[in-house]
UniProtKB/TrEMBL annotation:
Catalytic activity: L-histidine = trans-urocanate + NH4(+)
Cellular compartment(s): Cytoplasm
Protein's name in the database: Histidine ammonia-lyase
Modified residue annotations for 2,3-didehydroalanine (Ser): S153
Annotated pathway: Amino-acid degradation; L-histidine degradation into L-glutamate; N-formimidoyl-L-glutamate from L-histidine: step 1/3
Listed InterPro entries: Aromatic_Lyase, Fumarase/histidase_N, HutH, L-Aspartase-like, Phe/His_NH3-lyase_AS
Family that this chain belongs to: Belongs to the PAL/histidase family.
One of the Pfam families matching this protein, by short name: Lyase_aromatic
HAMAP family, sorted: His_ammonia_lyase (MF_00229)
Assigned keywords, A-Z: Cytoplasm, Histidine metabolism, Lyase
EC number from the UniProt entry: 4.3.1.3
Amino acid sequence: MVGMSFGMGDTNIEVGPEPLAFDQVVAVARDGAPVTLTGDALKGMAATRSHIDELSARPTPVYGVSTGFGALATRHIAPELRAKLQLNIVRSHAAGSGPEVEREVVRAMMLLRLRTLASGRTGVRPATAQALAALLNAGITPIVHEHGSLGCSGDLAPLAHVALALIGEGMVRDAQGELRPAADALAEAGISPVALGEKEGLALLNGTDGMLGMLVLAIRDLHRLLTAADVAAAMTVEALLGTDRVFAADLQDLRPHPGQAVSAANLRALLDDSEIMESHRGPDCTRVQDAYSLRCSPQVHGAARDTLAHAELVASRELASAVDNPVVLPDGRVESNGNFHGAPVAYVLDFLAIPSADVASMSERRTDRMLDKARSFGLPPFLADDPGVDSGHMIAQYTQAAIVSELKRLAAPASADSIPSSAMQEDHVSMGWNSARKLRRVVDGLAQVVAVEILTAARALDLRTPLRPGPATGAVVARLRERVPGPGPDRYLAPEIAAATELVRDGAIVAAAETVTGPLS
């Protein structure tokens, strides 16, 4: 997204105390949908802010209002230093390093922090939340860096970079993607920098919003990719003259995992009415049992779906949460808590990396079978036009293998690690931000691996001519052929892989199949 203009979406997203829906997060993060704080949100924030104002006038120390932070919480801060206290926590915590984080991730993080402010449990002034909403609506995206969050207390450093822009400091990208000082971008958009009051600096920093935003975006992407993986598997089964009898509903019902049933139903729909499948159904067919990478596709793709369903459950709970420390309760109490710990989100981020890597691994194995003349049932070696002179898709499989190897490494959990910080006050952390960052790389790799399988399977299906694939898989081949030519002598393959990957990512491959099958799950 760096350097690209940013168009605002049309659908206004109302942000209040209620949980945001997945689609709303994606609409704001990716499509630039504008946001508006609801009347209930403004009323609730004003009510709890009055409690903060009253507590700040008392001599009794209150964490985050009249004390230092973390291991420095034992110091009582005099009233004349409290504005500086809030300003300093933003400046000091904006200590990220490394590459820029993607615009969609930063916008998701901003929206989710805004929703927590709108819950009325953080004690910020309504005007501060409105300024954050204005930043989103202006398409101004603070520069957030790859490294800095331990996932506890939430995503402190990334959120501090957002808060830094809110006070008119640091660097941002404007709606056109240009890198600019925050003060200049805010001035041009007519947004006044926020002068932080008691607790507000802390409230802007203390949440799991970065890792949660990346989880929501990954969930959206994986729904599409797992369906695309079913499409790829169906095409390969067809190209390798495999059997579809193993996908029968009564066989799948013997093991009633819901994701498995969904995947098998997709495969049946995709392979329906295929001339290639019908060509070897007779009594002479010896294809009773295919290799596991074909036969067990519903079991693996289905288990990935079930894992995704669990991740959605966790994400939905987190979207309904008000994560801050301390929190302001309706009766006026300001209480410390541990809800900022990222473990629930970190675990499912790590969990999703495992089946994503495994689905990619199975996809690579299916691709390799189509390229091996000993296992491809009559297809030319490497699907080459003139084997020996041409190498066909030999190195496309190498690319898959390289990516899959990397995904297996990234499947190792980040949340199993913990490095104590803040003078041992924060002695156990979630590393959830790291889990989220590596899951984004896994999702990206999975898209590329599935795309190579679809590219290869389409070539193999073309080589089965005059037998025709099923209407659904045939529609996928036809859609791919709009961007990628059919079989022939060797040519520059990288652009074809890139084109296939784009069609997988944007849903065009699945949409082509659905013109025949109707909606796939």
